[in-house]
C-alpha cells in the first residue's frame, strides 16, 4: 500500500462519519448511540432505530421516563433481591436496571452522577442512605419525568443528602469545629477543578475554609432509615460573614454553593466532563462556547445541554473502529444485553469487584479514574473470565452443528453474541482458529463455539465502543 | 462482598486509588510512540532456574511452548536458547547496579505523621497537647486500652513512636515491628529504619489528587510519567515488563513510562486466559488472545491500541509469571490482610531472579477526618507487623540486603485536631527501611510549636531530595536526568551506610 493510500485509510477511520443529527442512522450508528448513551443495543433496539434519525433517538432518550422491561433479577435461589440486607444485592439491583431500562440514558446518566458526586458504601451506613442518594441522582437523569432539572438543584440537594453528609463528614462540620472535607470537594471535584484551562488556580485555601463555614450545621435524621433526610440546625452553623471567592456575606449552604457555581470556571468544568462521557475528541472552541451558552442561558438546565452533546456529529466519529474503552459497568451490563440474559445470580456484582468498578463503592471521592486506564494486565483477565463464564449459562448452550465450516462457525458465534463490532483482522484470526480447532466430537464443537464467542466478547475488540 | 474466583486479594482497602497505567503517556503523546509492543514469549520452565541454570528442554516443555506461540516463538527457542537468555539478561543488566531493588509503599489518604511520631521535648509536647486535646498520646507505654508513645533510642530521643507501631507494647501481638528495625537509632548495624519527619514540598497543596500526582510524578509540574517511570525509560530494560510491578489491579503512576514496559500483578498463580471446561488439546485461550492482540489498529485509535496492547502484555506476563511460585508464607504476616498478601507477592517477585527492580504497593485508608483513633491505630499495627514480616521474608530468601522499602503518603495532617480527626495538612512522615540504609532520625522535625501560616507542620525535607538520594545511591543513575529542577538540597549525610 502506498503511503498516500495509508494516510487516506487512517483519515477515514478517525474522521466523523459525517451528516448531522437529521441523517438516518445505519446499524453501526444505532450501536454507537446505545453504547455511548446506554449499555449497548439489543436486537430490538436495532430494529426500532435503524433508518431513523439520531435526533429522534436523542429526543426519545430525553423525554421517556424510566421504565423497566423484561424479567427482574433474582438471587441464585430464585428469591427477590434484598438491596438493604446485602450490598451485593444492592449492586445487582442497579445493574439490573441498567440491563432492563427501555430508555438507557436514565441509568447511564444516574451512574455518571454517582461517579461525579461519588459516595462510598463502605463509609456510609445504613445502606438505605445509598439508595436514597441513588434515587436523587436518577431524578436528575430522567428528563421524561423532570424535563427542567438543573445542576444547581442537584448541587443543592446533594449537599443536604444524608449519604453525602456522612461520606464527606458534613454532619461533623459545625460551629467552631469546621470540617473542610465537603467544601473542598465542592470546589475541587464537583464544581470548578483546582485550576482553569490556563493553569490559574480557581480558588484558594481560604476559600475552602470560608465555604466550609457556610455549609456547616447540617445533620442527618435517620430515625426511619428508609426516609432519612438531612436537616439544618441554626446553632450548629458557623455564623458571621464569610468571604467566598471574593464575595462576602453571612452565607449558608445554598447561597455559598450558588456563589461557587457563578465562578467563570464552573460551566467549562462541568461541560468538559459531561462531553467526554460520550465523546473522545475534545470539543472545538466554537462548540465549547455554544455548550456553555446553552447551559448558562438555560439556568444550568441539564436537558438542553445533553441534547446538544448527544446530537453532535462527533458522536459518530471513528465508527469503523470504535475509539472509547468500555468501563467495567458498561461492559458487564452490556454483556447481559448482548446475550439477552436476565440476571439470576450475583456473578456480575462479584465480577465488578475484580474489575475494580463496584457501583456504590468508588475508590475515592473522585470516583473512578477510568478511560484508557481501565485496561491493564489484570482487567483483561477479569473481562475475559466474566464473558466466558456467562457463556456457560445453560440458557444459551450452543446448538451442535456437525460439519460446520470454520467461517460459518464464526458467523454463528457472532450472531449469538449480538453481532458486536469486530475488526476484519480479528475475524480472520478467529476463522484461522476455527480451522485449527478439533471438531471430531460434539464436545469439541461446543468448545470451539464457546471459545469463539468468548474471544468476541472478552477479547481485545470487545472492550471498545 | 465475596470475591471472584480468580482473585487473590480481598479488595478490602477502603481507598484503593485509581492510578494511571503503563502506556497512558504513550497514548497521550505523539503518534511516533504508537508502535506495538514487541512480544517475546518466554518458556515458563526457563524461569524456575534462571539465572543460575539453563532451562531443561522436556517434551512437555517444547510442546507447551510451541502451542503457546506462533512460529517466531519456536524459532527463538529452537534456534538458540542463548539468544533468549542473552536478551533477558540484557534486560536485567541495563539497570546499572544490579542488586538494588526498591519497594514503594504508598499510604493512601494522607497519613497523620504527627500521630505516629510524637514530639517529647517539654515545650513541644505541651504544644502538641494543646493542639490535640482529644487525640494526643501520653508519653510512655500503653496502659490498658489507652495508647502511649515510647521514646526512641539514640538519635530519636526527643520523639516517641506511637505504641500501636511498637512491639511489646501490649497491642502489637509481640510480632516485632518498627521499633525492632529502629534498633539503637545509631545508623549502625541493626539500625535499619530511617525516619524523615516532615517531607513535602512548598507551598503544600492540600488536595489528595494534586499532591499524589506530585509525589508520584516527582514533579510539581504537569508531568505525565512517574519519577520511577522516567528512571526506567532512562536506565531500565526495554523489554522486561516485570522490571517494575504494581501489586495491584492497575499500574501506579509512579512507574508510568514513556516507552519501557511495566506490569500490574494482583497475585501469583492462575495466570493466563482460561475457558471453563476446555482441555488444552481443544483450545489454548492465552495463545489465541496473543494472536488477537497482534491485530493492528489505526495509530490514532488510543482505545483500541490500548486494548490490544493490554491483552498482549497480559499474555507476556502470564507466560513469565507462570514459573514463579509463592512459597509458604513466613510467620509474622498479619493474617487475612491485603497488605500481607501484597508484600508476600512482592517478596516472591523480588526473589525470583526475573529482573524486578521496582515494586509499588498502595494500601490503607488514612484520610482520617473523623474517628481517627479507631481508624488509624489498627492500620498502624498491621503496617508495623507486616513490614517486619516482610523483612524476615526477604531475609529468608537471601535478598534482604538488596531491598530498600520506602513508606510515604501524599501529605501529613493539620496539627490542630477537629472534632474527632484531622483535616488535610502538610509535611508527612517518610520512612526508609532495609539493612542497607543508615537508620535513625534523618531529617529535622519542624516543631509543633512553629507551624506554617495555615497551622501545618513546616516542610524540612523536599520529597525530591529523598528521591534524588534513592536514584544516586541506590537505583543508580543521574538524578538530574530524572528530576526536573534538580539538584534539590541534599539530605544530611548519605542515605545508605
The helix-strand sequence of chain A is HHHHHHHHHHHEEEEHHHHHHHHHH
Chain pair with largest interface: A-B, 82 and 78 residues
Question: How far do the termini of chain B sit from each other?
Answer: 46 Å
Oligomer: heterodimer
Mean pLDDT of chain A: 93
Folded structure, characterized:
The complex is a heterodimer of chains A (465) and B (497). Chain A has 465 residues and is mainly alpha-helical. Among the domains of chain A are: 87-92 and 107-316, no CATH class; 397-463, no CATH class. In chain A, 49% of the residues lie in helices and 3% in strands. Chain A contains 21 helices and four strands. In chain A, strand 3 (242-244) and strand 4 form a beta hairpin. Chain B is of the alpha/beta class and 497 residues long. Chain B has a domain at 101-221 and 326-482. In chain B, 32% of the residues lie in helices and 11% in strands. Chain B has helices at 24-28, 44-49, 59-68, 71-79, 81-93, 122-131, 178-182, 208-217, 227-235, 285-293, 302-321, 338-350, 372-396, 463-475, 479-482; strands at 101-107, 117-119, 149-151, 159-162, 193-200, 244-246, 263-264, 358-363, 403-409, 428-433, 440-441, 461-462. In chain B, the strands form two sheets. In chain B, strands 1, 5, 6, 7, 8, 9, 10, 11 and 12 form a nine-stranded mixed beta sheet that branches. At the A-B interface, helix 1, helix 5, helix 10, helix 17 and helix 18 of A face helix 8, strand 7, helix 10 and helix 11 of B.
Descriptors:
A: 465 residues, mainly alpha, globular, disordered N terminus, B: three-stranded antiparallel β-sheet, 11% strand
Describe the structure concisely.
The complex is a heterodimer of chains A (465) and B (497). Chain A contains 21 helices and four strands.
